[in-house]
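User: Here's a chain of 212 residues. Predict its fold as tokens.
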Amino acid sequence: MISDTEKTQSEAATDKIRTLILSGTYRPGQPLRQEALSGHLSISRTPLRHALQSLAEEGLVEAVGFKGARVAQPDPEMVRDLFDMRLLLEPLALKSALEHHTKLDFAKAEMALDAADAERDLYKLSQLNWEFHHALYHPSGRRTLMRTIEHLNRASAFAETIAKSIVVRSEKSAAEHRELLQACRNADADDAIDRLTEHLRLAYRDIQNTEY
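Assistant: Prediction complete.
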């Protein structure tokens, strides 16, 4: 059983390795050697193993053999499944949140959009993208649903970062986000759901049109 200290170390290691993957420092297919990672992150093997397991659940890492691991390689089937799930779950979260939105939620969403307008770093763009969506979904209060959507978004961000579609469609995505935000401000549920669904479909299409 992992101790509280090891759990904290594992969570920190998960964040660090995720950042290295989404920033492109660790590339798809690259081996993640536990001995080297343990030294680089200054943690023991037990919390490191738990970190790699967490990242495997997010789709960023895959097991190789008995103890090995490597950065996952996005494939078309995986990306299709990710967006099929997002198209089902994210409209559900948004619909549940619409009656509970506050001015603060909208302000958080707009701050993420404004920051993204001037950002070109792939990892930071993916983080700001999630901050925007999180601001609109979080008022649903559905914690299990939110955790699942967050995992799907992280895996999608990996695919978008590798395909570089997150940069290719940055202006289109910004416009889609602002239209979605306005629909939420108008409390127009049908329009908001339609705009979110179209946004996700276009994001998936642009990943398909770029190379991993």
